[in-house]
Amino acid sequence: SQTIHQWPATLVQPVGSPLSLECTVEGTSNPNLYWYRQAAGRGLQLLFYSVGIGQISSEVPQNLSASRPQDRQFILSSKKLLLSDSGFYLCAWSYQGNSPLHFGNGTRLTVT
Amino acid sequence: AQSVTQLDSQVPVFEEAPVELRCNYSSSVSVYLFWYVQYPNQGLQLLLKYLSGSTLVKGINGFEAEFNKSQTSFHLRKPSVHISDTAEYFCAVSDLQRNNDMRFGAGTRLTVKP
Fold first, then answer.
1. Which of A36, A51, A100 is opposite residue B34, by nearest beta carbon?
2. What residues of chain B lie within 8 A of the CB of A97, using their CB?
3. Best mutation site among A38, A57, A98 for testing chain B: the one with the most B CBs within 10 Å?
4. What is the mean pLDDT of each run of 10 residues along chain B (114 residues)?
5. What is the DSSP letter of B101?
6. In angstroms, rounded to a whole number, what is the distance separating the alpha carbons of residues A85 and A18?
7. Which of B47, B85, B86, B97 has the highest Cβ tally under 10 A?
8. Any residues with CB less than 8 A from the CB of B53 and at least 6 apart, and which?
């Protein structure tokens, strides 16, 4: 069966520090991969999605970037965190095409 | 592009009462529709999905939803809720013509009281 791993579960970082959140999927190949952000009391905002290695689409201009160095690895990064980057970050995968998303357990990021 | 509106940000109900969580979408093309549930500090879990066929869709945990194309709605229902149903519920729509483009509503916080 397929599983998705996302880490760390919680992270507290000072303003201006770098960020690296990692997500890996097991049990499937060539998945679509996604990064979402969920701000307190708000819905999910799609940040990035990827349909293959090295293929990244960005939904909104921001202080973040994403990379997919391997088929089942998706990394969310920032060179310098802002206070507004605080939130709950969710990684997800799906089969190619319009199939349901399968989410990781999320990372709670607090920028201080 | 498609969008999703969840009409109620919070829905408090008593245990064993019925509940309906409302969802409306806008899209100029055919869509797939989904409901997800999120428990505190966890990711989202798929409750049910509508892809085609019968407009009444049954999901896990006793939930069901009805797709109404004329009203562009996909409301979620459960005839009798439990304390354990307390969670955040998200409606989502996926554009059939745009691969990988799933949009979520802002969520509805369901609180089941004893």
1. A100
2. 99
3. A98
4. 88 97 87 92 91 90 94 96 96 76 89 96
5. -
6. 11
7. B47
8. none
The helix (run of H) or strand (run of E) holding residue A49 is strand A44-52
Q: What pLDDT sits at residue B29?
A: 74
Task: Please tell me the predicted confidence (pLDDT) of residue A98.
Answer: 67
What ranges make up the beta strands (E) of chain B? 3-5, 10-14, 19-21, 24-26, 31-38, 44-50, 56-58, 64-68, 73-78, 87-95, 102-104, 108-113
Closest Cα in chain A, distance from residue B44 (Å) = 6
CB-CB contact of A86 with B82 (8 Å): no
DSSP-derived 3-state class of residue B84: helix
Partner-chain residue, chosen from A32, A43, A100, that has the shortest CB–CB distance to B104? A43
